[in-house]
Write a structure and sequence with these properties.
Protein name: Serine/threonine protein kinase
Keywords: Membrane, Transmembrane, Transmembrane helix
Distance between the termini: 168 Å
Helix content: 10-25%
CATH class of the domain at 3-108 and 122-133 and 145-155: Alpha Beta
Order of helices and strands: EEEEEHHEEHHH
Number of strands: 7
Structural class: alpha+beta
Strand content: 5-15%
Biased composition (Low complexity): 195-210
CATH superfamily of the domain at 3-108 and 122-133 and 145-155: Phosphorylase Kinase, domain 1
Region (Disordered): 184-256
Transmembrane segments: 155-177
CATH topology of the domain at 3-108 and 122-133 and 145-155: Phosphorylase Kinase, domain 1
Number of helices: 5
Length: 256
């Protein structure tokens, strides 16, 4: 009897969109899915407990690839048996479908003759899908996420690559900043000489201006010419000039 998908169920495996649960048992869960064309497909996925058991995974792989332990194995449309996080197989819908490949996973649960008591594998209690930890945790119908198809190693490689990319960007940014010439600082303007006080300008003026400035308050006393004496000054004749000096008067003031 089918039932809606649960919150821990994947919404897509490979190219197949899961729509509902068809069967659930300790070995795994069988889903009804549809391919890209809308055709119904049966998809079987190992449970979390079976996927964690290497022996159970080996039996599932042998059943899918070689048909071991499967009576009339259905045609395999697609499968993923190399990733423990999500081991699944897809087969045409109808008949046993993909659930037939889950039968060999739990072998030994009952005796061959049916007289010996059967036992359940130690992982029988972990019936959640192996990809439940990566499945959509919101309400039903609010979205779909594909099951994780890469191992933890791929995640680590991706994180390391992202870290290297960030480091490369930082180095490139540092080299670009090192090549940019530093911006020249604007020169500080020289302070203009302040105007000297009026008194200082007067001191630096020319002597004519300074003398004129000082004479504005008081009159300049000019020396008066000395009058020559009015008395008779005797003339003394020089040698050789007796004849020339005869015509000269004794008083120089009488010279016209």
């Amino acid at each position: 009897m089918s039932e809606p998908l649960r919150d821990n169920d994947p919404r897509q495996l490979g190219a197949y969109r899961l729509s509902e649960r068809l069967n659930a048992r300790p070995e795994g869960v069988v889903y009804l899915a549809h391919d890209s064309a809308g055709a119904p497909v049966s998809v079987a996925m190992l449970s979390e407990g079976a996927a964690a058991d290497p022996a159970a995974r080996d039996r599932f792989t042998a059943a899918v690839t070689e048909g071991d332990g499967v009576e009339g194995p259905p045609r395999v449309l697609a499968a993923n048996t190399s990733n423990p996080a999500a081991c699944w197989v897809a087969a045409p819908h109808g008949g046993a479908g993909a659930g037939a490949y889950l039968d060999p996973v739990g072998v030994g649960s009952s005796g061959a003759s049916g007289t010996t008591p059967g036992y359940a594998p130690y992982w029988a209690g972990a019936q959640a899908p192996a990809s439940a930890r990566w499945s959509w945790q919101g309400g039903r119908g609010r979205g779909a996420t594909a099951a994780e198809t890469s191992s933890n190693r791929g995640i680590v490689i991706g994180l390391v690559g992202l870290l290297l990319l960030i480091v490369a960007l930082l180095v490139a940014l540092y080299m670009w900043l090192a090549e940019v010439p530093p911006q020249a600082m604007p020169e500080r303007p020289q302070p203009s000489p302040q105007e000297s006080p009026q008194g200082v300008q007067g001191e630096e003026a020319s002597p004519e201006e300074s003398s004129g400035g000082r004479g504005g308050g008081e009159e300049t006393v000019q020396p008066s010419p000395v009058e020559s004496p009015t008395g008779d000054v005797p003339s003394v004749p020089l040698d050789g000039e007796d004849g020339a000096g005869e015509g000269l008067t004794e008083n120089p003031e009488q010279i016209p």
